[in-house]
């Protein structure tokens, strides 16, 4: 299984690194990082760097494509070179996936037309502009398109993919190896569960920093 993870400036680190940690632990799976150019990109606040080993023109086919989200995804929604690359690579994939606002990039490339999809809870409605049917949940599968909700949901989606492709025993072994056993101190990880004042504060912060 060949996996290509798109990275770009101002991405959300865990959107890419969470699924990477899951998939790199599967025997026989080859995970590659791809960007417009080979070299370093920086995360949303610039404090962490990731390195792309391949440029877009070096990766024109892959079994699994993963598109993370982050503030930088907004500017890329009008980047025709990248959008065309997404379309071209999607023709070769067994799975085309996204995490968080990465689904907006898939939508902008025309890959979510008529598809059920999800993303960060703050950007579900804009998916309609791309002909998608936005729904909730940690991840949504529609054909070969898998879209995950915000940030940490990419880990859940990646474990699902491992179970489908390599078997549930392998997925469980990877989960145990990562000791992925969430037990957060608060049950406020979704707008349905978080206190109303917290939801309002996060909405306001996101609007001010979009």
Shape: globular
Oligomer: single chain
- Distance N to C terminus: 35 Å
Mean pLDDT: 96
Helix content: 25-40%
Q: Can you identify the CATH class of the largest domain?
A: Alpha Beta
Evaluate the radius of gyration.
Answer: 16 Å
Give a structural overview.
Helix content is 34%, strand content 20%. It is an alpha/beta fold and 210 residues long. The chain folds into 2 domains: 2-179, Rossmann fold (3-Layer(aba) Sandwich); 183-210. A 7-stranded mixed sheet has the order 5-2-1-6-7-11-10, with helices on both faces. The protein has a two-stranded antiparallel sheet with strand order 3-4. Strands 8-9 form a two-stranded parallel sheet. A hairpin with a 6-residue loop joins strand 3 and strand 4. The longest helix is centred in the C-terminal third of the chain and has 14 residues, at 153-166. The mean pLDDT is 96.
How is this fold's topology laid out?
Elements: E1 2-6, H1 13-23, E2 30-35, E3 39-42, E4 49-52, E5 54-55, E6 64-67, H2 72-76, H3 80-90, E7 95-99, H4 102-108, E8 116-117, E9 133-134, E10 139-142, E11 145-148, H5 153-166, H6 168-178, H7 196-208
Parallel strand pairs: 1-2, 1-6, 2-5, 6-7, 7-11, 8-9
Antiparallel strand pairs: 3-4, 10-11
Helix pairs in contact: 1-5, 5-6
Short account of what is shown:
Helix 1 links the parallel strand 1 (2-6) and strand 2. Helices cover 34% and strands 20% of the residues. The chain has two domains: 2-179, Class I glutamine amidotransferase (GATase) domain (Rossmann fold, 3-Layer(aba) Sandwich); 183-210.
């Amino acid at each position: 299984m060949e996996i290509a993870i798109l990275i770009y400036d101002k991405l959300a680190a865990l959107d890419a690194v969470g699924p990477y940690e899951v998939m790199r632990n599967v025997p026989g799976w080859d995970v590659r990082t791809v960007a417009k150019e080979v070299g370093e990109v920086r995360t949303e606040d610039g404090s962490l760097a990731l390195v792309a080993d391949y440029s877009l023109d070096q990766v024109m086919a892959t079994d699994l494509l993963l598109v993370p989200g982050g503030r930088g995804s907004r500017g890329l929604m009008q980047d025709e070179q990248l959008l065309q690359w997404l379309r071209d690579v999607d023709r070769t994939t067994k799975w085309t996936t996204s995490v968080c606002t990465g689904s907006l990039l898939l939508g902008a490339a025309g890959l979510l037309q008529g598809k059920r999809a999800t993303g960060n809870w703050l950007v579900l409605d804009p998916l309609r502009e791309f002909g998608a049917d936005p729904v909730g949940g940690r991840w949504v599968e529609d054909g070969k398109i898998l879209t995950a909700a915000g940030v940490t949901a990419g880990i859940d989606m990646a474990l699902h993919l491992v179970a489908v492709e390599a078997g549930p025993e392998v997925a469980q072994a990877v989960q145990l190896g990562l000791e992925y056993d969430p037990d957060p101190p608060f049950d406020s990880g979704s707008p349905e569960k978080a206190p109303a004042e917290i939801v309002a504060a996060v909405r306001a912060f996101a609007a001010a920093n979009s």
